[in-house]
Automatic annotation (TrEMBL):
Class of this enzyme: transferase
Enzyme Commission numbers on file: 2.7.8.-
Topological relation to the membrane, as annotated: Multi-pass membrane protein
Entry similarity comment: Belongs to the bacterial sugar transferase family.
Pfam families per record: Bac_transf (PF02397)
Species this protein is from: Falsiporphyromonas endometrii
Domain Bacterial sugar transferase: start-end pairs: 283-465
Molecular function in Gene Ontology: transferase activity
InterPro entries (UniProt xref): Bact_transf, EPS_sugar_tfrase
Name this protein carries in UniProt: Sugar transferase
Transmembrane segments: 12-33, 53-73, 85-106, 118-136, 289-309
Subcellular localization: Membrane
Main location: membrane
Length: 470
């Protein structure tokens, strides 16, 4: 079990114990305040019976699920006692309302003011019991982190155009341990030579990661040939280790910074986004539930469309194509086929107005974007989200990074069926238009939120109704 998994298990276990304790104490309060002795007899009989056990299990599962949705278990290695308090308070307020409505509101009482007292008792109890235990556990973990054997272990990757001494000094002042330093020479090299040189070092880096097992990868790159390092970052993403760059590094690209806590580390996590943890969890849950519902609801429509595609021209009903998704991982995207099978016999080509490769049925599907319906399966699988940067093929990504070296940052989030770029710009017919649309995807990445996702979905629905796809 990894350290992250172990810490997450400990936080979940401590919350389970806290919530269970709250459940039994709250039932004692309910018994006393509501005067249930005539109906249930002794307190022991009210608390310890089969129904109470079943409700108790549901009670605990509900609270753990709510805490998970709040993002409390996401970054267990970077807990902040200051951040824990508002997270706990907000969760307990919302959870207490739901529990009150499901567990207490149907209780028979002589005075309705008892309901308000019971809600106050439930909220106060959850806060008083849950937060102190969390505070103590986080304090213990912070002290353990500060001990030598628990400090973050760093793999430092640099090119010879960057100065290492200031970075190494900063890392040591922050209590980090530099496991290894890998230098990639790029000065006095042409673009193609630098590209080959970086790829040759990827195997060395991967071997070091496997053997040394670092906690964080710090990449400090300066000078030219920055676009070549996107290949390096794609190779590092798969290890699911935080990748950080100094704020002064050219790889940072001036992206908006979201500060968590007061650690003061002058590094930006390239594997993180500006979306809060609870928003990430709600977005993930929304994707799964809605994808499943929409697959069921639209199945009759997709059956009709499948028959139409089958008789429109020779070839498969579903078009499969490799795209690059989260952390640079390839996946197969699914669409209803809208082109003739020999459409790309001369190599990859983007669609354009009046494209003769598109079938008559395909033109209608594209107009209302009905060809995208099979991608609900991609969302359910976890390859995609409903809203996110549009996934591209590696053929075009390699060209895009030459003009937009920071394209790799978009792969920190799942690609979407729809995107800000799709609703504000639409389909791209050439590389120049792809670059222009990329600006909207970058805006989305910099301002990710559930509110923005909702706005993009509303614009998408309007586009579908208007039939402005192509």
């Amino acid at each position: 079990m990894s350290r992250t998994a172990y810490l997450r298990f400990r936080y979940i276990l401590s919350d389970c114990i806290s919530v269970t304790l709250c459940y039994f104490i709250f039932n004692c309060i309910r018994y006393t305040v509501e005067d249930k002795s005539p109906t249930f007899g002794e307190l022991y009989d009210f608390i310890f019976n089969l129904k109470a056990y079943v409700v108790g299990i549901i009670f605990v599962l509900f609270w753990i699920g709510l805490f998970a949705l709040s993002g409390y278990y996401n970054n267990v290695e970077n807990k902040s006692r200051l951040d824990e308090f508002p997270t706990t308070i907000i969760s307990t307020i919302i959870g207490s309302i739901i529990v009150f409505m499901g567990l207490v509101v149907d209780d028979v009482v002589l005075d309705t003011s008892v309901y308000l007292k019971l809600y106050f008792y439930l909220f106060s109890l959850m806060t008083i019991v849950v937060y102190p235990i969390r505070f103590i556990q986080t304090t213990i973990e912070i002290k353990r982190y500060k001990s030598l054997h628990e400090r973050d272990k760093i793999l430092l990757i640099m090119n010879d155009e960057a100065t290492s001494l200031p970075i190494e000094k900063t890392l040591r002042e922050e209590g980090k341990i530099i496991l290894d330093k890998i230098m990639i020479p790029t000065s006095n090299m042409q673009h193609q030579e630098a590209d080959i040189n970086i790829q040759q070092h990827i195997n060395e880096i991967e071997t070091c990661i496997t053997k040394r097992n670092p906690d964080i990868i710090v990449v400090y790159i300066e000078g030219k040939h920055l676009e070549c390092f996107s290949l390096l970052l794609y190779g590092l993403y798969k290890y699911k280790i935080p990748i950080k760059v100094p704020m002064r590094s050219m790889l940072f690209a001036g992206a908006k910074v979201k500060v968590r806590g007061m650690k003061g580390e002058p590094f930006i996590d390239l594997t993180d986004t500006n979306m809060s943890e609870w928003e990430k969890n709600v977005k993930w849950l929304f994707d799964k539930i809605c994808a499943l519902i929409l697959l069921i609801i639209t199945s009759p429509i997709m059956l009709i469309l499948a028959i139409s595609v089958k008789f429109s021209s020779k070839g498969p009903i579903i078009f499969r194509q490799e795209r690059i998704g989260l952390y640079g991982k390839p996946f197969m995207i699914y669409k209803f086929r809208t082109m003739y099978t020999e459409a790309e016999c001369n190599g990859p080509q983007l669609s354009k107005d009046g494209d003769k490769r598109i079938t008559k049925v395909g033109r209608t599907l594209r107009k209302y974007r009905l060809d995208e319906l099979p991608q609900f399966w991609n969302v359910l699988k976890g390859d995609m989200s409903f809203v996110g940067p549009r996934p591209e093929r590696s053929y075009y990504i390699k060209q895009l990074v030459n003009v937009a070296p920071y394209y790799y940052l978009l792969h920190n989030v799942r690609p979407g069926i729809t995107s800000w770029g799709m609703v504000k710009y639409g389909y791209a017919s050439n590389l120049k238009e792809m670059e222009e649309r990329l600006e909207f995807d970058w805006l989305y990445y910099e301002n990710m939120s559930l509110q923005l996702d909702l706005a993009v979905l509303c614009y998408t629905i309007y586009t579908l109704i208007k039939g402005s796809g192509k």
